[in-house]
């Protein structure tokens, strides 16, 4: 499950609530209604059109949770897990997840499985992870079935067993997770615990792709032609499917198309097309596209080298929060690479990089060290 940095998925509280309705919810919450307290708290937590307020979120969610509202208990657990408005405390998160799990709340069952599987804050415990995933599957969770399949495929705290992995991937597929078919296809393609069987891999790849909605179907066909192995590889077909995905509303497809024109071994290098598609992607909010433009102008690999454009785009990326771009600018100004040497400017960008990252490279250069040693 993809999450934002605070653990939110972006799926909760999607339905717009009018000010009048929200006021009614608030009145009910103040009168002790657990469901209203949950709705109000989760609205503060998942706000889309205003700044999130974790303090208010925790206040109302905790009130609901203390009345044994399972979803509220789960949310309180998430806030402790990710340190949203409270000090991060995995043990406290587990306590609240267990309360929700005891009431059969599926997301809490899965979350406990993930915590024990990946050892978030403590040592991993595969047996405990498996227990919670199994309970989640019994509640209908497809993601838990996928996790069990991966555990058996990778031998992650359980004996490696390709047959069990495929069995659990099939269970996930039956529950509606099309990625399970991709996992099975990859196992047959790579011969991971099973005989290498390209025909069987093809069958599972096509099954996975055909079950996606149009936007994602085209995207996954593109991936199939790029990464499905030598029997599938066709860069031109990949680009064609990326363009179909883009036309169907997949905003990431524009950046993927640009990368195909930019990277060797994909299609004939075409810098102008790469720049065009990167700019389309950037206009649609893809920050990685700005990095791609900066690199193209900086390297001059398939477009004429243009230092002014490179610096402009590196600054755009750095100012959006990318420490690597800020560090690159610092090095350019420090060493006079494509720009007049300017130590004050270099320090400015290194400081920004340090503030945006814990990698230490920029900090080392600020201290006068040699980052090449890292």
Helix and strand layout, with pairings?
Blueprint: H1 19-30, H2 34-45, H3 54-65, H4 70-82, H5 90-102, H6 106-118, H7 126-138, H8 142-154, H9 162-174, H10 179-190, H11 198-210, H12 214-227, H13 235-247, H14 252-262, H15 271-283, H16 287-299, H17 307-319, H18 323-335, H19 343-356, H20 361-366
Helix pairs in contact: 1-2, 2-3, 3-4, 4-5, 5-6, 6-7, 7-8, 8-9, 9-10, 10-11, 11-12, 12-13, 13-14, 14-15, 14-16, 15-16, 16-17, 17-18, 18-19
Walk me through what this model shows.
With 374 residues, the chain is mainly alpha-helical. The chain is 67% helix and 0% strand. Helix 2 packs antiparallel against helix 3 (54-65) and helix 15 (271-283) packs antiparallel against helix 16 (287-299).
